[in-house]
Amino acid sequence: MFEGSFLGDAARLADTDRLECGICWTVYDPAEGDPHWGIPPGTPFAQLPEHWRCPVCDAPQHKFMVLRD
Asked: Which fold would CATH assign to domain 1-69?
């Protein structure tokens, strides 16, 4: 369950939203995907598989917060 932003309402996440880990500050950028987990570029955060975790500190998805530029 995603709790980091919008109280878990992943429908409020834009496909282009970048999210930052609240533990180690690693940024998930959908434009880049995540080579560590084999996530292709263009994959929105809301479409990450349930098993996906922060590639740096192994934090679960609900620890990520939306970055606003």
From this structure: Rubrerythrin, domain 2 (2.20.28)
